[in-house]
Amino acid sequence: MTGIAPGVGIRLIAATDAGAMSAAYLRNRGHLAPWEPERLDPFFTASHQLDIIHAKRAHLSAGTEVPWVLVDTDQPGSELHGDRIVGAITLTGIVRGPFLSANLGYWVDRDLTGRGIATAGVRYTLGYAGAELGLHRVQAATLVHNAASRRVLDRTGFQEIGLAPNYLKIAGKWQDHLLHQVILPQAVSGLRTGPTWE
Fold first, then answer.
1. Mean of per-residue pLDDT scores for the chain
2. DSSP state of 146
3. Which of 26, 177, 10 is nearest to 110 (CA)?
4. Cα Rg, the chain, nearest whole Å
5. Residue 77 pLDDT
6. What pLDDT is stored for residue 191 in this prediction?
7. Is residue 113's pLDDT more than 80?
8. What is the largest CA-CA distance in the chain?
9. Which residue, of 66, 109, 121, 135, has the fewest CB within 10 Å?
C-alpha cells in the first residue's frame, strides 16, 4: 500500500475486499447515487461485490484495467474484518498501439470529501499510468453539473476537450458529460509495452 494523503493509502483491489466494498457502497449509497448508474439492491451485497472484484482482477491480468481502492490507514483492518475502504480509483479501457490511452474513474467517501484525497489519488494514478503503464493520455468524463469532480481534474492537469451529449445513463437518465484529457509527460509515457503490474 502507498500513502497518498494523511490517513489514506491506495492499493490494488483484492477478493478479500468484498465485504468492505459492500459496506463502503452502503455507507455512500445516497452520496454516490446522483453520479453513478442506478444500482439495484443486489449490487450492495458482498457476494455481488466479490463477482465484480473477480471481473476486475481478470481485466487487470488482461492488461485492460487497473482497479485500486482507497483505504483508511488510521483504522487498520484485521484478519477478520479487513480494511475500511473509503473510495476507489480505476483506469479502464486501456488501449495500446498508437493510442496508449485509458479512462479514469474515481469516488471518495462522503465523510472525506473536500480534503484533497481525490486530487492526491488522481495524481498517483497519472504517475502510475505514465511510469508503469507507458500511457500517452488519460481521459475522464464528468457530468456537466459535477463541479467538485471538474475541480479535481483541473487541479491534476486535465483539459476540457468537448461535450458528449447523452453520453452515459446516470441516475436513471441519459446525461450530457464533459470530456477531459491529460497528455502525460513524455519523460514517463511510452516506457512500457505491456502490462507489468502483476
1. 92
2. -
3. 26
4. 16
5. 63
6. 44
7. yes
8. 47
9. 109
